[in-house]
From TrEMBL:
Name of the protein in its database record: SGL domain-containing protein
Annotated positions binding substrate: 20, 22, 40
Pfam short name (any one): SGL
GO process terms (BP): L-ascorbic acid biosynthetic process
Keyword Nuclease attributed: no
GO molecular function: calcium ion binding; gluconolactonase activity
Cofactor: Zn(2+)
Length: 216
């Protein structure tokens, strides 16, 4: 079936022509959250903070976080605590946690998981992210050739899932039982195959959660 452009839901305006949207996702209440990053053609993405993180409401993108370098993965602690959001700004080298109030605004920012090793840059950055039905996080690593599984309770690394491509971009559960982890990768910079391919990881012994529909 052919996709049709029906209407524009929101526009950031001419002042934001130097950025583009990156990751976005709908929360358990049907609210869309999405973030931006500077256009790749305008210089070092990690040396600037031109991006922002938004919540969509009634045709308006409401700012939730400013001074973002590369707005990336996001997920929620559900069904345990759906008012708990996890969020990645890749250049920060960590996963932030927020409380979500009744209006959908983010409060009480904390560092949930730091990717640095003894305070040092690990040589890769966090990219896309999802969580399983137990609330544990799965973090794609650009430059790391792996997906990191993090325990939601202890905030410690539980598992590293090796991927035969360096630039791991995002993760999502799928399959008839939602027990297969699909992993996207990039061939940016001319990386040879299997870079840029989609991988399926089975046998993890966990299940994901269905995605939510956006309430317009």
């Amino acid at each position: 079936e052919e996709a049709l452009h029906v209407r524009v839901l929101a526009d950031l305006g001419n002042s934001q022509n130097h950025v583009r949207f990156n990751d976005g996702k709908v929360d358990p209440s049907g609210r869309l959250y999405a973030g931006t990053m500077q256009l790749e053609t305008l210089g070092d993405l990690f040396a600037q903070k031109e991006g922002q993180f938004f919540r969509y409401t009634n045709g308006t993108m409401v700012v939730q976080k400013k001074n973002v370098s590369i707005s990336n993965g996001l997920t929620w602690d559900e069904p345990g605590n759906p008012s708990r959001m996890y969020y990645i700004d890749s250049a920060a080298l960590d996963v932030k946690a927020f409380d979500v109030d009744d209006n959908g605004d983010l409060k009480n920012e904390t560092v949930f998981f730091d990717l640095r090793v003894n305070g040092a840059n690990p040589g890769y950055v966090p990219d896309g992210m999802t969580s399983d039905a137990d609330g544990n996080l799965y973090i794609a690593t650009w430059g790391g050739s792996k997906v990191m599984k993090v325990d939601k309770r202890t905030q410690q690394l539980l598992q590293e899932i090796k991927i035969p491509a360096e630039q791991v971009t995002s993760v999502a559960f799928g399959g008839p039982q939602l027990d297969e982890l699909f992993v996207t990768t990039s061939s940016n910079g001319g990386k040879p195959a299997p870079a840029g391919e989609l991988f399926k990881v089975t046998g993890l012994g966990v299940k994901g959660k269905p995605m939510h529909k956006m309430i317009l």
